[in-house]
Amino acid sequence: MAPEILKVVHLNKSFGRVKAASNVNFALQEGVLTSIIGPNGAGKSTLINILSGSQPADTGRVFFYGTDITRLSIHRRVQMGLCRSFQLVNIFPEMTVFDNLQLPALAVHRRTRQILRSLRKEAAVHLAVEQLLDRIGLKQEAGTVASALSHGDQRVLEVGVALAAQPKLLFLDEPTAGMNPVERVRILDNIRRLSKNKQTTFVIVEHDMDVVFSLSERIIVLHQGEIIGDGTTEEVRNNPRVREVYLGQEVAA
Length: 253
Ligand SMILES: Nc1ncnc2c1ncn2[C@@H]1O[C@H](COP(=O)(O)OP(=O)(O)O)[C@@H](O)[C@H]1O
Ligand SMILES: [Mg+2]
Hints:
Layout: E1 4-15, E2 18-29, E3 34-37, H1 44-52, E4 59-64, E5 67-68, H2 74-80, E6 82-85, H3 97-108, H4 112-117, H5 123-136, H6 151-164, E7 169-173, H7 181-196, E8 201-205, H8 209-215, E9 218-223, E10 226-231, H9 233-237, H10 240-245
Parallel strand pairs: 3-8, 3-9, 6-7, 7-8
Antiparallel strand pairs: 1-2, 1-4, 4-5, 9-10
């Protein structure tokens, strides 16, 4: 069995009288593409905020490969390989696709400081960027300024920027938001393919059920801060509690 990459124990978070996380417990296996779903206000964003370190939990613990990271900063978590892709803040719109990918690649190769002195002999970084362009399928667009990309390609570039930091675990928040059907199919194929090579474990937060059921190997369903379903697509589809929350419509489709 694949190693346990993340473990969440007794997580609780309240905003006044609203329970955004209510005794949340789960563990994630390395390489298993997992989706976190639930209606609006279910606590998906709060959970991702807590796991990525941008919001503290009231109580509970988070472990990353067995190490307690509950009190670690976002920065420390990123260094350890736990990253999230923010919507449209990872991209420098005035820079080319290549340069957007080059910045995080530089950081990984610990060359940011030296590069300011010498811009030559950066073969390793260049190679890393070429590989990223291949992985995300934006080779043709390498010299294009990011703001000139289609919306879908900008979202693909965001994923690429996140991947450039070589994360072990990557949270994607609604990766297909605002995409047209063609772009949607492309990014889903991309994520599926990237997930297969197991360098990065993907966790997707998504409300589009077609996306979720076509992509996920495991689905965790939140409702009012509580996990009400957790399992394979089949298990979740047939879960009465989940059907109740979704009125039996979307999950039955
Ligand atoms: N900063 C906040 N202050 C007050 N209430 C919040 C805050 N963040 C989230 N909430 C509340 O917590 C609940 C869960 O929100 P959220 O995690 O954003 O849900 P989701 O992402 O599933 O839509 C909601 O009722 C929301 O209104
Ligand atoms: Mg949300």
